[in-house]
Structures
1.
Amino acid sequence: MLTVDDAMRILQEAGEEDLARGTGTERLPRSYRVTSVFDLMRSRVGWLLVLIVAATLTVNVLDHFQHLLDQVVVLALFVPLLIGTGGNAGAQSATTVVRAMAVGDISGGDHLRVFLKETSTGLVLGSLLAGVGFLPAAVFAGRSIAVVVCVALVAICVLATAVGSLIPMLARRLGIDPAVVSAPFISTIVDASGLIVYFLVARAVLGLN
């Protein structure tokens, strides 16, 4: 017999598990007060190891485009801003989609609609951020660099929201809990792909080889 207390306990455990996986950890089996340092380490180290391996993609991208950074050093100053914004945009999109799936707002036939809505949102957000940031970037680094940063910012926001919307839906189709596809993992993917977009835009706008 399943009592109300049992149902509440199951719901609480499921919520705690989703919250933990959304931040790249595993749910603690016991209260934090009595959880040892070793158990805390074990709940986090798996995801950190996965993310370290995934982060090598970002390192490889930077190494591949190092010659562009050597030619225009100021490009490196905007890398944290761009990949940070992209990671946050992707995480926001993923969180929104996972929540919508959990409450039944998204069904199996809604993939295209969700994708278009999220990429449109990314386009609007990116354009807004680019409009706000163009003048400060132009004053700080010059008009050409500002154009590169703003165009890349729009493209990265669109890319990030696309990734953030598609991965949870793909995970559910494959029978994987969408909460497992955590925000840190999406951020890592967007970091590498966003850098590629940034350097390709820089190469095109600045005429670099």
2.
Amino acid sequence: MKSDILLTRRQALITGASLPLAAASATPALAAAEMQGAYTPAFSRFTLGDFEITTLLAGTTIAGDVQGIFGTNVSSEEFADVSARNFIPADQTEFYFTPTLVNTGQDLILFDTGLNAAQLIQALNASGYTAEQIDVVVITHMHFDHIGGLMADGTPTFPNARYVTGSVEYNHWNGAEDAAFESNVRPLAEKMSFLEDGGSVAPGITAVAAFGHTPGHMAFMIESQGQSVLLFGDTANHYVWSLGYPDWEVRFDMDKTAAATTRRRLLDMLASDRIPFIGYHMPFPALGYVERRDSGFRYVPASYQFRL
């Protein structure tokens, strides 16, 4: 007499799962695919009204001893707790260097130039442009990671460009005996024009005083067809430790009190008016929004909003 065999659901699943393994064992093993390594694109592009905006990744770097840079006025326990709650290590960070192109249809305008010409030109070429096509170069401020790409081996990187920067910023560095300024900015002085707060780079692009990080640091409001984005340079240098906690001191801020005041003013405006922004050191592609959180703010990266 034939006996009945009953399988439980779990036994059936285990038996079924073993079949592909048995089949695989009957075929020759294939060589493992090579690891390709981490990859970040060199540029990202979106439209804003009639303008086309391209953010360029002109390099990254890993840094340690991050509380020697950010949150220097808070305890190590608070710094570690905030880092853990935001899923980032408290002992390392990645810096991004993100110049931005604005194509208005009349002018191709570059904001800031990275650490060196080679990395900037590599990203610029990947985005479909050449150095010769740049009409205007705008410098938000004159720390080296923003002016490093202005010159290449003593020759201007952008041979057909005119240059724009804030007058307060230029006047400070003009008397500072700074090596980077002397080698990269002073040779371009005859082609340079200067802005005050509210000054215009081109129609639709307006300077916004954001002093503190440096004496004349400038942000720029970009507007087209009723749409806006604020390019805010180094107003905040990290999306958690600076943007999220605007009163935390940053080593690179030359006037720490003024920098914190500026951060709060601009972040509050962005949150209130729901205006997106581009931050030079934000995680690439450096485009996002700000919302209020407790006594500070939270960075909300852009997703598909600009593709709709």
3.
Amino acid sequence: MIQSLTHTVRTRRANRQLGGLLAFVAGAANAGGFLAIHRYTSHMTGIVSEIADNLVLGNLYLGAAGLAALCAFTAGAATTAVLVNWARRRNLHSEYAFSLMLEAVLLLLFGLLGANLNSLIDIFLPATVLVLSFIMGLQNAIVTKISKAEIRTTHMTGIVTDLGIELGRLVYWNRAREANAVYFVRADRDRLGIHATILGLFFAGGLAGALAFKQVGFVASVPLALLLSAIAAPALWQDITEWLQRSHPGRP
């Protein structure tokens, strides 16, 4: 089952299972990030607004900090695109696993930075913001490419909007028979279910992450990293095994 999550031949079920798991991870990491730096890094709408506000108010340092976070998020998404396309051109099984393993490593780095945040705050605070923003861009691009933009996992604005649209269709009363023959309003219950699931798992991840980071500190990033590593490891190991067989064809 776990191998299907990163398999190059995608199914809708695998996309949604991976999307749900990553939504939980994003919610937990976002909550941990808020406890560490008192801001959320999973959505860029607020960041872009902050950049504009700070530039108008003359807070150039804060405006530059917001721009750096925006660039880090963009760089994370671009990194996923590079890794996926690089692996795809070489017919590797780890087409999506590279980005997941990189995210696992960066989550450990986030835990390390957060744990030492008070020692050199002028260095570790900006670094933590950049690492978290990069992680969020990296992860959001993974699911976006896998699901062909059907699923997002790090920000819920689009999810809640689509959820509201489907709920509106669900409660709509198709009264006029003439109009029904031309345009019958029907909710996509499958779409409604996946958006509700993603939203619920992001919220559950936020609760679990906030509780874990509050109780044990930044060690809480380790289980998240291990989860991502477990998802990515089978595909990566399969590619390593095949590379070794090609490099040493005489060995069993």
4.
Amino acid sequence: MVDGEQRRDALLDAATGVLLSRGYDKLTMVDVAEAAGLSRTIVYRHFASKRELVDAVAARALGGYAVRWRTALSEEPRPGTPGSIYRAGFRVVAADPLLTAIATRDPQVFGRYLRDPEATMPGPAGPEFLGLFLRRQQEAGVVRPGVDIASVAAVLEALTAAIMRAVQEHQGRPGSPSPDALIDTVTEMIDRMLTPPDVDTEAALALLDGVLDAGAGTPAQA
């Protein structure tokens, strides 16, 4: 059983590398087997198809996202405000090429996979998770009353992909803002819009931990 799990992890590691370097459309099970140092037969024992393999690659990446997000949040100047929560998540995504590709639905990486109706890849922080968390924050007084939570959740999800694309497109151009400057600006906007003057950040962090512990930060929703 342990050998099987180790082989599966080795295949996912190899598939991640091939996916990022060659893209989904050019990825083959033979490529993955060779990169992992295993036989093609072993690949098919674990994954019935290329699509199923990439589903698993994305699910594993997103499975660790919530934990890394929570760690990054603890390093924020005011951990617990809506802006700090967003910035921490963005920085985790920006530091990981696979999460970046997932967040931006990068066609060079995922190609035809994005048009496959059976593909199961969600985003790093979907509107369902954001909406649930922001609604609980609002009920606890961490988000201002009267804010349209569904609209805010949809905007924040779209912002992540938009900022990542802007960073990719403008990186290195003279006069372009740095990634840190972009996210700091967005964070300030979010806090000005959502955060009450006397927010209880400890209560906000307790809410986040409760949502994650309840399973809302699983790959299906985060």
